[in-house]
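Exercise: predict the structure of this protein bound to S-adenosyl-L-homocysteine.
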Amino acid sequence: MRPVVRLLPRVTHRVFSGHPWIFSSEIGAVEGAFSPGDIVEVRDPKGRFVCLGYINPESTITVRVLSREDRDIDEGFFKERVRRAVEYRHLLFGVKGSFGDEPGGYRLVFSEGDFLPGLVVDIFAGYVSFQTLTLGIDRWKETILDAIREYVNPKGIYERNDAPVRALEGMPLRAGYVGEPFDPLIEMDENGVTVLVDIQRGQKTGYFLDQSDNRLVVRKYLTGKTVLDAFSYSGGFGLSALVGGALNVHFLDASEAALDLAKAACDRNGFAEKASFECGNVFDVLRDYERKGLRFGAVLLDPPAFARSRKMVESALSGYKEINLRAMKVVKDGGILCTSSCSQHITPQEFDSMLEDAAKDARVTLRLIERRGQRSDHPILSGVPETEYLKFRMFQVLKA
Ligand code: SAH
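Solution:
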């Protein structure tokens, strides 16, 4: 018998309409013995079946939903989920054979977006980098790896379970090769540019694939411009700008290691002459540029998530406003501002009204060119607004 989680009466449970999270405050009782990570059955206050999920009382999200159908949750279940996630990428990218032979980068599994909460699987030029971020999914790691080998046929596999969120779930941090080791510095194609992915020491799984389409979209607007790529990481945006004929790109990031990757990638693509690099804090550096009167034809802003919880939204918005306001000031009249937020806790509306505020204070008008989000291999689900986490806007900045 599976343990039963009974939902509290008089609460509007989002889970009824397909939301994948149940918080401890929504639970009346848990009937039956269980260990953290076990599969549980969720029932409504009248005792009717709602869904199946895994439980971890140590996490504020006590139950994460695996299925809305009453079925066996076993190895076959997880293998089917992985297969369906991979099939969806076949549909998106028109890939016929195995992703292990593809020169590009793809997110193959994105957690709740693929009904596999806690699991992230990226593939970079045939090499898989994965994370099992919750106890409930970590238990099925070997099954998931078998499925990846079967449906993806990767050249190699690397485990990036060194993410601090694992500690919150009561799990150890670990990273390393699964099976045969390989060169951890991977050359990958992205929209015709060679980018470098450090699968071992890079941030998160090694590269931010969610902005992939946006990097391509900005390209044609940056021809002939002097570009500031702020929060550049390994240079994805700036490299794309250079392919599109940008006059030059100044890469700015707080991480030396990230800039080393950006520099190596510029060299490999033959852009050494047009690229410059600066290690610093974007907040300080933009203030400094503003004071010195340094101006750019385009500024790209792609900061990390400033809001890690709903409580942090207000302070995060003031941080976003500050950098956007400064960016608007250092863009030339008629120049381009590309700005993003990947904070799941900040809604598209909050992001847009922050930008409007910043424009007002900077005394500029923003002409909207592109309003976009994450690439579709990071799925957005109906009934789950949290899945729409990436906001990307491109404006022409008008000062006259
Ligand atoms: N634009 C990148 C992704 C950026 S990720 C891409 O296309 O791949 C966010 C980056 O911001 C990280 O590289 C991190 O090192 C950097 N960062 C975080 N805080 C910063 C700060 N205050 N100033 C400069 N860089 C910062």
